[in-house]
Design a protein that fits this description.
The complex is a heterodimer of chains A (about 120) and B (about 110).
Chain A (H helix, E strand, L loop, with lengths): L2 E5 L2 E5 L4 E8 L5 E7 L5 E7 L5 E3 L5 E5 L4 E6 L8 E11 L2 E6 L3 E6 L1
Parallel strand pairs in A: 2-11
Antiparallel strand pairs in A: 1-3, 3-8, 4-5, 4-9, 6-7, 7-8, 9-10, 9-11
Chain B lengths: L4 E3 L2 E4 L5 E6 L6 E8 L3 E9 L2 E5 L6 E5 L5 E5 L8 E8 L9 E2 L3 E5 L1
Parallel strand pairs in B: 2-11
Antiparallel strand pairs in B: 1-3, 3-8, 4-5, 4-9, 5-6, 7-8, 9-10, 9-11
The chains are: A mainly beta (about 120), B mainly beta (about 110).
Chain lengths: ~120, ~110
């Protein structure tokens, strides 16, 4: 069964520092991978997705993620954190199986940005 | 604004009751997904419909059911409610039922069972 592991339920960085949110997946075949962001009292919105094209994927708001098959990882990075990046981030994996495609979300990582 | 609408925004009800949550997908999207988000269990996939038919099932309880109507809106019915059903319920939509498409999430319905 596929699963998604996000290392660290909380990550705190200073404004201007590198953001690194970790995601590892388990899947016997390359899946489709996504990062979503959830701001307080809102639904999730897509940051970026990997669908077997370029392994380095650029998303919105300066975020990017690199698909590394050998490490089964899809970590999210941003060179310089802004206060507005404070939110919860979810990694998700989707692949076909019996009963159609299923998307499994990680437990989420809450990002705090200190001034 | 994702284009996905959900009603109501908040719902407070008592144990044992039944409620219906409604979702209208983005214009043109054929697939609707339902999720439950709670502090202890995170974001859990419940069920997916594609063009009126059930496509995939997740961790949906037998007390819960859903359907997608010909106009593509969807309803999630929760019955015999328990305190543990208190959660945020999200609906999402995508153009197709394929996994390579992102999902567009609605703002959610916050259900409180007292």
């Amino acid at each position: 069964a596929q699963s998604v592991t996000q290392l660290g339920s909380h990550v705190s960085v200073s404004e201007g520092a590198l953001v690194l949110l970790r995601c590892n997946y388990s899947s016997s075949v390359p899946p489709y991978l996504f990062w979503y962001v959830q701001y307080p009292n809102q639904g999730l919105q897509l940051l970026l997705k990997y669908t077997s094209a370029a392994t380095l994927v650029k998303g919105i708001n300066g975020f990017e993620a690199e698909f590394k098959k050998s490490e089964t990882s899809f970590h999210l990075t941003k060179p310089s954190a802004h206060m507005s990046d404070a939110a919860e981030y979810f990694c998700a994996v989707s692949r076909s199986g019996t009963g159609g495609f299923k998307t499994i979300f990680g437990a989420g990582t809450r990002l705090f940005v200190k001034a | 604004d994702s284009g996905v609408t959900q009603t109501p925004k908040h719902l407070i009800t008592a144990t044992g009751q039944r409620v219906t949550l409604r979702c209208s997908p983005r214009s043109g999207d054929l697939s609707v997904y339902w999720y439950q988000q709670s502090l202890d269990q995170g974001l859990q996939f419940l069920i997916q419909y594609y063009n009126g038919e059930e496509r995939a099932k997740g961790n949906i309880l037998e007390r819960f059911s859903a359907q997608q109507f010909p106009d593509l809106h969807s309803e999630l019915n929760l019955s015999s409610l328990e305190l543990g059903d208190s959660a945020l319920y999200f609906c999402a939509s995508s153009p197709t039922g394929q996994g390579n498409y992102e999902q567009y999430f609605g703002p959610g319905t916050r259900l409180t069972v007292t």
